[in-house]
Design brief:
The chain has twelve helices and ten strands. It has 366 residues and is α+β, with helices and mostly antiparallel strands.
């Protein structure tokens, strides 16, 4: 079931309780349960399992799931894997958009989790095809950055604003629960002039890496990510890069299909970092050039459509869905048209973010 049932009224009622409280952490209301699991013929007993996510799991009989293989038995794993993340694709009838989007980040050489598909059953009840996403944890950090001892936070409807530090979710034992390491970055974004921003910000953020992140969110039309909605991302302070922050994508279960909502570049300059950088001409030029470079190097329509076909065959082997082939065909048309659509918008000019900070921890004010 989709969270859009009843036109999203039920989901909206729950979400509105928290939207106006940017400094309040989200509730952690999901219980852990004990379970036995079978993965490709490998059986583990007495693992921990719970729902994960927010609206997409609260209202679903097929929720997203988090599995900890060593929660009850120390050292228990499948090969080197102890954390299994299964997303239910509740808003994606193709079931493949998440893996597609993460593949684009991978092709761009950007640190992002790996993704494949899983056919999931619980208590012998088939729940359909899930996205199996690499957990953002110490193993991911070692693979992506060669280290795992920096501070790692998850961002959900939050931004780099000093008063919102309680909303950040610490993800490792060595990460301070109150996000004090992000306060300096937040203060710079709020108080530093445009002239001084490049020098001060570059001490605490890998700006060049962020521009790639920004460009990729735009290319994919990820309208529920950091740049457009202050949502679905991680921040890692990389010790081998002077503890500068790098953003890690998460929750990539959207694309802007056929641009039905006419997503504009101005929708991606609302969050604090893109808002400030977009006010500096040199960074608008950098973003424009990076988008064009990534489209040339990554957006290979033949490769991407073949990748979609491969995933679609896997989905069809695990569930029956009337009209599925048509949905996949529409996704491939989107891929074929996307480069021209984005280039047209970029050539029209990168917009400038607002002068003042936004007071909202969701969406943007443009």
């Amino acid at each position: 079931p989709s969270i859009k049932e009843k036109n999203g009224a039920t989901a909206s009622a729950v979400l509105l309780e928290y939207l106006g409280q940017c400094g309040v952490p989200f509730p952690k209301e999901y219980n852990w349960y004990n379970a036995d699991i079978l993965v490709d013929g490998i059986q583990l007993k007495n693992v921990g399992i719970r729902k994960k996510g927010f609206l997409g799991s609260i209202f679903s009989v097929a929720p997203a799931l988090k599995i900890n293989t060593d929660r009850n038995q120390a050292g228990q794993s499948i090969a080197n894997t102890k954390r299994i993340t299964l997303n239910n694709n509740s808003e994606d009838p193709t079931r493949i958009i998440q893996c597609f989007n993460y593949k684009v980040f991978e092709l761009a050489g950007y640190p992002a989790p790996r993704c494949n598909l899983a056919n999931v059953s619980v208590n012998n009840e088939a729940l359909g095809v899930y996205s199996h996403i690499e957990a953002i944890n110490q193993s991911f950090l070692e693979r992506s950055f060669g280290n795992s001892n920096g501070a790692l936070y998850e961002g959900q409807l939050v931004d780099f604003v000093e008063d919102w530090t309680l909303r950040w979710d610490a993800k490792t034992d060595q990460t301070p629960n109150i996000a004090n390491p992000l306060r300096t970055l937040s203060k710079i974004l709020s108080t530093t002039s445009d002239n001084d921003l490049p020098t001060e910000l570059s001490k605490h953020l890998n700006i060049d890496q962020f521009i790639s992140f920004w460009a990729l969110e735009i290319i994919l039309g990820h309208n529920d990510g950091y740049c457009s909605n202050r949502n679905n991302f991680f921040v890692y302070q990389n010790p081998t890069d002077q503890n500068r922050a790098v953003l890690i994508p998460w929750g990539l279960n959207y694309i802007q299909e056929d641009d039905k909502k006419n997503t504009l570049l101005k929708d991606f300059v609302g969050a604090q970092i893109p808002r400030r950088l977009s006010r500096i001409p040199a960074y608008r030029d950098s973003l424009s050039n990076r988008i064009k470079a990534l489209l040339n190097s990554v957006w290979d329509e033949a490769f991407l459509t073949n990748y979609i076909d491969g995933l679609a065959l896997q989905v069809k082997s695990g569930q029956s869905d009337a009209g599925y082939d048509q949905r996949v065909a529409e996704l491939k048309v989107w891929v074929q048209n996307r480069k021209a659509d984005i280039l047209g918008k970029v050539n029209a000019g990168i917009p400038t973010g607002s002068e003042k900070d936004s007071k909202k921890c969701y969406q943007n004010d443009n």
